[in-house]
Specification:
Elements lengths: L5 H39 L5 H37 L2 H7 L4 H4 L1 H30 L6 E8 L5 E11 L2 E14 L4 E14 L4 E10 L10 E8 L3 H13 L8 H13 L3 H16 L2 H14 L7 H27 L5 H23 L2
Antiparallel strand pairs: 1-2, 2-3, 3-4, 4-5, 5-6
Helix pairs in contact: 1-2, 1-5, 2-5, 2-9, 2-10, 5-9, 7-8, 8-10, 8-11, 9-10, 9-11, 10-11
Length: 366
């Protein structure tokens, strides 16, 4: 039966201190080159108030923390177990009959605790910080939505050329013709609107200009309308949610919001975006597990003979961190394009870490 002993407390304390120091250094290194320079430029060039600049810095912290936690435990365990190896303390522990798996349990416990913190940061803190940052920004987007009839054929196209969270401007509505051609889709009429109001059950377009299209593909006159309703019923709110969420990054959503957005994309058959968001959703649950896997890898890389080179373990660790964060966008793209199933694309890095653990453990001959 597992009992907390003196050496458990000792190893946990050493790993905790080393991981905290590495975590702090990683945050400083991550923020210093780009974020601080950007904030300083805002202060001196854009004349942003110091309090606003401080808020911008605070909003960056959760984003960095989500990436820094796995790195902190990885470097912390390497440093701790490398030091224990160099001081022959691990040899003493092995000499009294403790297996390697038993020795690293305190580090795994800390990795599990950091995994829970990492999950909370990704689900709550990062979305909250991202939303707070967006309040001081103005976003514009070009949004296109195609209504389909009962036969899944294009019925009406809605194009919002100028969109911010509170305003819809320069809306174009295209009614597709029922005339069928082999190589082209024809239009029945085109509407231009200066601005629109979004209600729960409809969009109301104002200052509308209607251009009826003849069978020959030209318009002969223009009709002015005071207003016009489109996207009536539940479709109005769904399309507005799609449009509002289209300007957001995935980190802006909580897990429940991301799941809701994902379901909406599936209903509207936005396949590419759905696969991309689904892969990101899986990553929300898999990324915290890197804290545990990195803890194991760090212990393995740090466990070495007293006279071995310390630089090797840290070099391998830096390579692992770099490979992990640099390949995530690549796997996201594979999921988005349908090359890999979203779950496989999200889990491949973690399967790679498990394979690395097996190979390193076999190489170390523990």
């Amino acid at each position: 039966m597992f009992r907390i002993s003196i050496f458990d407390k000792y190893i946990f304390k050493q790993v905790f201190i080393a991981a905290a120091v590495c975590l702090l250094l990683f945050i400083i290194v991550w923020i210093a080159p780009e974020t601080l320079v950007r904030i300083i430029r805002k202060i001196f060039i854009q004349h942003v108030e110091f309090q606003t600049a401080l808020k911008l810095l605070l909003w960056e912290m959760p984003k960095v923390l989500g990436k820094a936690l796995p790195v902190g435990i990885l470097l912390g365990t390497i440093f701790t177990f490398d030091k224990l190896s160099k001081d022959s303390e691990l040899s003493i522990l092995r000499g009294i009959g403790l297996s390697f798996n038993r020795i690293i349990l305190p580090a795994l416990f800390l990795g599990a605790a950091l995994a829970l913190i990492c999950f909370y940061v990704g689900d709550k803190l990062i979305p909250a910080a991202s939303k707070a940052e967006r309040e001081d920004k103005s976003f514009k987007s070009h949004f296109v939505y195609i209504q389909k009839d009962e036969n899944s054929l294009p019925k009406r196209g809605v194009i919002v050329s100028d969109f911010t969270p509170n305003n819809l401007k320069n809306i174009i509505v295209i009614d597709f013709s029922k005339r069928k051609y082999d190589d082209a889709i024809t239009f029945e009429s085109i509407y231009f609107s200066d601005w629109a109001n979004v209600k729960e059950d409809r969009w109301i377009l104002h200052n509308v200009k209607k251009y009826p299209i003849t069978p020959g593909g030209i318009y002969e006159n223009m009709n002015a309308l005071d207003n016009m309703s489109i996207l009536e019923g539940s479709e109005a709110s769904k399309v507005y949610k799609l449009m509002s969420n289209s300007v957001k990054r995935d980190r802006t959503f909580t897990n429940s919001e991301l799941k809701e957005y994902m379901q909406l994309l599936k209903e509207q058959e936005f396949s590419d975006e759905y696969r991309f968001i689904l892969a990101k959703y899986y990553q929300r649950f898999l990324h915290p597990l890197t804290c545990i896997l990195f803890a194991v890898i760090g212990c393995l890389l740090g466990f070495s003979p007293p006279r071995s080179q310390r630089l090797v373990g840290f070099t391998v660790a830096v390579g692992i961190v770099f490979a992990y964060y640099i390949t995530l966008p690549f796997f996201d793209m594979l999921a988005q394009k349908g090359v890999l199933p979203p779950f496989l694309a999200a889990s491949l890095p973690f399967l790679g870490f498990i394979l690395a653990i097996v190979l390193i453990k076999k190489y170390k001959d523990l």
